[in-house]
Amino acid sequence: MSETTATQSPSSPAAKEKSYISTESEWTFELINEYDRAIAECAAEYRLDTYPNQIEVISAEQMMDAYSSVGMPVGYNHWSFGKQFLQTEKLYKRGQMGLAYEIVINSDPCIAYLMEENTMMMQALVIAHACYGHNSFFKGNYLFRTWTDASAIIDYLLFAKNYLAKCEQRHGIKAVEQILDSCHAIMNHGVDRYKRPSPISAMEEEKRQRQREDYMQQQVNDLWRTIPLKNADKAIENTLRFPEEPQENLLYFLEKNAPLLEPWQREIIRIVRKIAQYFYPQRQTQVMNEGWATFWHYTLMHTLYDKGKVTDGFMLEFLQSHTSVVYQPPFDSPWYSGINPYALGYAMFQDIKRICENPTQEDKHWFPDFAGADWLDTLHFAMRNFKDESFILQFLSPKVIRDFKFFTILDDELDDEYEVTAIHDETGYRAVREQLARQYNLSIHDPNIQVWNVDIRGDRSLTLRHTPVDRVPLFEKDVNEVLKHVHRLWGFDIHLESVEGDTTINTYHCPVSQSENALDPRL
Amino acid sequence: MGVTHVIDRRLNGRNKSAINRQRFLRRYREHIKKAVGDAVNKRSITDIDRGESISIPSKDINEPNFRHGKGGRRSQSHPGNKEFVSGDRIARPPGGSGRGGSGQGNASNQGEGMDDFVFQISQDEFLDFMFEDLALPNLVQKQLKDTSNFKFVRAGYTTSGTPAKINVVRSMRGAYGRRLALSGRGRKKINQLEAEIDALSKSPEIDDPALSKADRIRALEEELNGLRRRMKKIPFIDEIDIRYNQHVKEPKPSTAAVMFCLMDVSGSMSQLHKDIAKRFFILLYLFLRRNYEKIDVVFIRHHTSAKEVDEEEFFYSRETGGTIVSSALKLMRNIIEDRYPTDDWNIYAAQASDGDNWNDDSPRCSKLLAEGILPMVQYYSYIEITPHEHQMLWHEYEKLAEAFSDRFALQQIVDESDIYPVFRKLFQKQVENV
Fold this sequence. Notes:
The structure holds two protein chains of two kinds.
Chain A: H1 2-8, H2 29-45, E1 53-58, H3 60-68, H4 79-93, E2 102-105, E3 110-115, H5 120-140, H6 142-147, H7 153-171, H8 173-185, H9 202-223, H10 231-239, H11 250-257, H12 263-284, H13 286-306, H14 312-325, H15 341-357, H16 361-366, H17 375-385, H18 388-395, H19 398-404, E4 407-412, E5 417-423, H20 429-439, H21 442-445, E6 449-454, E7 462-466, H22 476-490, E8 494-500, E9 503-510
Parallel strand pairs in A: 1-3, 7-8
Antiparallel strand pairs in A: 2-3, 4-5, 6-7, 8-9
Chain B: E1 4-8, H1 18-27, H2 29-42, E2 52-56, H3 58-61, E3 73-78, E4 89-91, H4 106-109, E5 117-121, H5 123-130, H6 139-144, E6 150-158, H7 168-202, H8 213-233, E7 244-251, E8 256-264, H9 271-289, E9 294-302, E10 306-309, H10 311-316, H11 325-339, E11 345-353, H12 361-373, E12 379-385, H13 392-403, E13 408-413, H14 419-426
Parallel strand pairs in B: 8-9, 8-11, 11-12, 12-13
Antiparallel strand pairs in B: 2-5, 6-7, 9-10
Helix pairs in contact in B: 7-8, 11-12, 12-13
């Protein structure tokens, strides 16, 4: 065994005092506890502030379960999770996909899943990565701090699961499934991008849910009041538009204003919306979050090694895993599927540390603020106050751009050829950096669709407006399907117009024509 | 720094997703049923009894959302530049914008050549889908209505019954209790009197001219004897003491079935005919296996004479000669009478033939079935594997089907793809006509 032979090696750097936690690759619960203690000690030295950890050892099948409920430890029931599970199972059984070594949940205590198949080294790696890396990110990053409430999420998910189960009993599985399908279709457009939502708390939710039902119904009824208004009011009323401002959160708008929904249906929309909102910070901080966790598992493992707690063999096994995690295939590789967030994030955090410790002339020129500053302070500052987009804009250095050999390609429909607009050279750094930041801007990634107008006094039709960026159109095949879902929630005609500047480029309608257009029977 | 809890969750259920999987199957049941139906026809006979991979077109399973399509003007940064410099122009690769898109997974979302969504269903699920909506004919009736098959179970004691069922212990216990109860006061009095006499005889003579000591004793003894006589009259056992063992009849559901496979192996039946017949028999067998604990299969093949054979010989040995169907029916009736009493066995029969029969024999078959066999069986199905005109046998059987519509069915099969639909038709869930 490499571990045991390695321990005999006299030339090991930390030869002075060695107290290996383990030398075998089998893990035990005692060892997990011991490694956790050792790692926690190191993490404290680096001021990593975390929620308490709850490490759960699970089997591969259970990992697939966890996968298919998109990481929600208690998920409500829906066929799409079953589909996800079948897909994962198939890929896994055919060996086309390895399972993630861990899943970690932004909750307090922070729940991390460890697979029983992992070796001791992997378990230690996962503990460092998830329980101290991700965990401290969840607790420290401003997006998570303001948008999610880690202490309440598990209770809320439980509330949601029970509530939906109750709805299924009362209104039938199918009725609930339909609403969920429709909500899922516009889930990405069910988040407040700028406005901070009120934190969710399960107890409050349950307490208030009944009151809210009555109140909401009342509000909605008020909007659709049919008693004629006084003439004076009417004049004003006619000039007013509804909503007064375009609204970006479609789910929120439908929940509050859809005329025909039952209270329980509104509550379901709310549940999906809350969950979308909970996951929104994770979508916005992929590079940072993974980069941060990867940086720390690397650093913590080396600290353990320097303290003489792990063997050379352990480190070799670790480095092998680590390198494959941070591997970035080039664009022309068959393995290329976009930028690896682990690779980019890890490289950037390492680079920040380097700039602080050994700044070059170039670094001093590009990052006068922190070149030569305390690296740990800078790292913590970066972790706390940025999301992917701003993090890249602020911290991506020419060196990392050169290391990754980034280049930017412009693909214009009107042009027969691609154009390389910038590469990793003096003139291209800024352009590449801006482009990369844009790629992580979710409001560019997701089409910009907002609630534009409701014909309150007329046919009650709802008009959505899509504002294309750089003439990028919507994916046609899905648009009509999604509109059917919106139509189901709203209950009256839906129009969607793509408007660039003042010209309407394209319009979609649901129902498609005046005739009774049958919905897909499954919908 | 918080405390870490390590929890072993491996023993928790691993099928957390089972319900979501069920939801998925429910939603796509039409697709799955079709795939299962196709599979039944395509599969080789021996491996009907396993799972199946189901494929559903991606477009049906897609979860739509608002996203970007291709087109417009878009930039994208990629890693791994080798020879490009700013201003280079590259020919657009065929197949559109390819990776240039900023939408995720563009490549797979465009074009018609999408992969189907493929997944496995288990053997159980496969059979469930296969047998969906089918019910064993008369199964329920057999269990609930058939009065010929009962067993007696003990159900306590009763005060009336036949002498053979007297429960001695219970009866004696009752008698003893009754005697104790009825004689209680008398025995007390007797004891009292005895004590009095005893005391009197020991006491010294007192001078009482009216009642001498001997007189008093005699009077007491008389009373005592009277009491004793009365006590003797309490019967040792009385009619009201008698208890009988109580038994009640309970219907006994038969959990065993026997399946008769009858096949014509005359020269006119080719191997293809036999294969089709075999599949039909297998379906029936699988179907029965899911409903009964124990199943016997009896193979009877016939040409001009019938013979009970094993499975191998039944399907694969070749015979020639004419056809007399009634020989098989006679043999079947004999076997039933010998080995399968209808009280204990649910009897199913499936007959496969190409319709050839010696013409004089067909009415005889009909009579045999109507009088000898059909009253005893749960279900008798006849499949005729022929693309040709029906012959005498079919017409005779048609009459039977009218008379015994609850337990006799006949269907024609032309080629392999007919098997499953015909099977379903034969065993279509019968509407309970109550």
